[in-house]
Amino acid sequence: MDDQIIIDVRGELCPTPVIETKKISDAYPYEEIITIVDNDISKENVEKFGKSKGYAVITNKQGRDYFIVLTPRLPGTDEEALQRILTKHVGENNHKLGVPKERITSTPERGQTVESHTLGIVRDDEIVIPDITENSHSFQDASLSRHRIILVTKDYLGEGSEDLGRTLMKTFWNCLVEADTYPKAIYFINSAVKMVCVTSDYIDVLKQLVTAGVDIAACGICLNYYGLTDRVAVGTITNMYTITESIVGEDIVTL
């Protein structure tokens, strides 16, 4: 583990730091990752992610910034050797952690190429730019859950503020497309059908799910009610009988 992949997501709120860290973890499962964040919630969530994936996790604080080091537990590495690896990160004067923010920012979206200074690998104290396109876990790699269906009943998530609910809904879709397992189908009813239409903010991410094999369908009577039948931009139009028949006996998640 001579390389360190550094992800600088200072200024970003969750779930972005976790998502960016997961992308690199998927692409480089045997490399050490250092994620830099500047708030407590992101720190805690990245630490939880690292531990859930079996990394040894250690965090250094420098000023307002947290440097979270995720070290993979490689086969054949005993605890004593792992502790030696971790010990080198303890202390605020580790020069490898002091990477200026302008040198590295966040990781690319899946399917995008890596642009200069998108992320950095520290190798022999020099920062090099990796080619993530060869190793990256793409959304086509995610498996489908053959018994999981999501029923979306409105165009915002939760109760209370609808504006906040729409922000949460957008975050939900962005997280879902990064998940390791997708539902086999997503059905949209009532006002949720607006999300599959041409003016929707969710079209791109929903198209990614369709490409990955997820069946996306909107209720025809609902589209007609909102005058959107000819505005569908992703998925297919279905009916309540088909939706009902599909969800009976399945594992349903209702939004």
From TrEMBL:
Gene3D superfamilies named among the record's database cross-references: TusA-like domain
Pfam families: TusA
Transmembrane segments: none
Residue ranges constituting the UPF0033 domain according to the UniProt record: 6-69
InterPro entries, per database record: DsrEFH-like, Se_metab_YedF, TusA-like, TusA-like_sf
Protein name (database record): UPF0033 domain-containing protein
Lineage: Bacteria, Bacillati, Bacillota, Negativicutes, Veillonellales
